[in-house]
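Sequence in, structure out.
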Amino acid sequence: MNWQEVCEHPSLQNLPFKIELNEEGKVLMTPVKIYHAALQGELEFLLRSLLRGGKTLPECAIQTRKGIRVADVVWVSDSIFAKIKHEAACSVCPEICIEVFSATNTDREMEEKRQLYCEQGAQEVWLCTEQGQMRFFSAQGELAASSFVPDFPQQIQL
């Protein structure tokens, strides 16, 4: 399957899962719990509050060399949004991609997503633990704080 087929397939509509495609075109599904969704919502709210000149997008599909990966939350500038807004999956990576750990995620999986997003042009990739602890990365490695949003909290409180 390709991403357009996944988006249009009637049996894959309105599922309570996050769907991604691996490099062979196989559908990967991850169930999302309420607390995970609450963290996503708070991250999106904080980004929207602290940054101007762009959009926040939940569950954003990004084309990578290993198939479609879906970032939990992204921030994309108005100029890049103008290029991708009608695409099924981002051909140009948003500037900030955020992944929220869930019980089924492994460190290896998150490291791979971080690398894939950076390869596609993400300026920063943020990881949020299940406890709300934030870690910030650029293509060069871990950052003490976000260069893009220096005032972003190190801990998300729900």
